[in-house]
């Protein structure tokens, strides 16, 4: 059976202009991939030019009571954008709040010990923060709606001492060893509340995951990220699966795929995600090692195309349920039925 060990992380991701590729059980102090030698076509160019091609994204996914949601930040150096989408799991209704952020040196910090990512706009205030020294992660937002969407306030807090808390670091060739992609994934138990201007309010506990990625981007990129989180037989289950045209040339050796059961991690092989009848119909997610065999059934979908300066960004966020089987590293089966999750599909042209 497929097995990939999670080892202790290096002090730095980049050393002597080379990346420390691997899958790690914890995360180093800085998620910084600057300094690789000649990352594009092997042609040495000034560092500030190749560093401009490093783009960052942050995703925070949460699942509480009757709601599941996704907060995302994209950092393009001279500008960025944030997005918050919340799905009602019972009705499939969605609430989406988007914001373009102006010029700034960096929106998503590299420090993994302490940091925050913030959209300051009065009508789109969103803040994701973490403090490993204070043992917490948090999401707070206050977004204003319109005639179709309510105002929503929310706050979720997670102590790092909670049972479901884990940290993992993936440093992968992207796609060859001259470039790299680094991803920090942390999973957590959360507690907090959501308040809607239409009078609805919940105070609940649940699960969440935060993912920060930095990659040397191509001029045209696409990626599909799939997350599932919930409880099966009183066990907290979280998984992440990913496909991208920046994946490593040896995807079974280097990828961001992982299954976490009550804080115990299992690195998963590369997967194929197909939707033979369209993205709004059933998705088939499988590997070649018989560890992943899932069907994702969409319930609600949000699609947007953004044209910003010379950039075109197409992103589709789908809430749905998974049915199928996952295997952990000991060969134990995790049987999923109507298991909640989100697929995030992006296409970017720079």
SSE layout and pairings?
Blueprint: E1 14-15, E2 18-19, E3 22-24, H1 47-51, E4 54-64, E5 67-75, E6 80-88, E7 94-101, E8 114-119, E9 124-131, E10 136-143, E11 152-159, E12 166-173, E13 180-196, E14 201-216, E15 220-232, E16 235-244, E17 258-261, E18 264-267, E19 272-274, E20 283-286, E21 292-308, E22 311-327, E23 333-349
Antiparallel strand pairs: 1-2, 3-12, 4-5, 4-14, 5-6, 6-7, 8-9, 9-10, 10-11, 11-13, 12-13, 13-14, 15-16, 15-23, 16-17, 17-18, 19-20, 20-21, 21-22, 22-23
Describe the structure.
A hairpin with a 5-residue loop joins strand 22 and strand 23 (333-349). The protein has one helix and 23 strands. With 350 residues, it is mainly beta.
What distinguishing features does this structure have?
9-stranded antiparallel beta sheet; 350 residues; 1 helix; 12-stranded antiparallel beta sheet; mainly beta; globular; 23 strands
Largest sheet: 12 strands, antiparallel
Strand content: over 45%
The termini sit apart by 40 Å
Helix amount: under 10%
Number of strands: 23
Q: pLDDT average, as an integer?
A: 93
**For the CA atoms, what is the radius of gyration?**
19 Å
**So what's the overall shape?**
globular
Uncertain ranges: none
* Class derived from helix and strand content: mainly beta
How many helices? The count is 1
Order of helices and strands: EEEHEEEEEEEEEEEEEEEEEEEE
């Amino acid at each position: 059976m497929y097995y990939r060990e999670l080892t202790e992380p290096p002090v730095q991701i980049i050393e002597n202009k080379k990346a420390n590729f691997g899958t790690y059980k914890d995360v180093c102090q800085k998620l910084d991939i600057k300094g690789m030698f000649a990352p594009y076509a092997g042609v040495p160019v000034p560092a500030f030019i190749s560093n401009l091609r490093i783009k960052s994204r942050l995703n925070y996914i949460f699942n509480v009571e009757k709601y599941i949601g996704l907060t995302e930040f994209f950092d393009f150096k001279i500008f960025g954008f944030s997005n918050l989408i919340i799905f009602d799991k019972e009705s499939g209704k969605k609430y989406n709040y988007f914001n373009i952020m102006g010029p700034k040196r960096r929106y998503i910090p590299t420090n993994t010990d302490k940091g925050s990512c913030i959209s300051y706009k009065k009508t789109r205030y969103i803040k994701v923060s973490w403090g490993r020294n204070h043992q917490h992660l948090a999401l707070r937002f206050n977004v204003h709606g319109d005639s179709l969407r309510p105002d929503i306030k929310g706050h979720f807090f997670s102590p790092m001492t909670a049972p479901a808390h884990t940290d993992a670091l993936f440093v992968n060739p992207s796609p060859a060893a001259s470039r790299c992609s680094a991803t920090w994934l942390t999973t957590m138990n959360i507690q907090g509340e959501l308040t809607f201007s239409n009078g609805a309010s919940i105070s609940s506990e649940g699960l969440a995951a935060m993912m920060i990625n930095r990659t040397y981007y191509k001029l045209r990129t696409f990626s599909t990220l799939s997350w599932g989180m919930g409880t099966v037989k009183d066990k907290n289950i979280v998984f992440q699966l990913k496909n991208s045209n920046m994946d490593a040339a040896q995807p079974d050796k280097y990828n961001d795929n992982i299954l976490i059961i009550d804080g115990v991690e299992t690195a998963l092989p590369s997967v194929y995600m197909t939707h033979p009848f369209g993205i709004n119909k059933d998705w088939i997610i499988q590997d070649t090692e018989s560890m992943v065999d899932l069907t994702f059934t969409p319930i609600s979908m949000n699609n947007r195309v953004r044209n910003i300066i010379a950039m075109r960004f197409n992103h589709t966020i789908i809430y749905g349920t998974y049915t199928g089987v996952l295997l952990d590293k000991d060969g134990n089966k995790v049987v999923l039925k109507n298991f909640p999750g989100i697929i995030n599909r992006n296409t970017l042209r720079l």
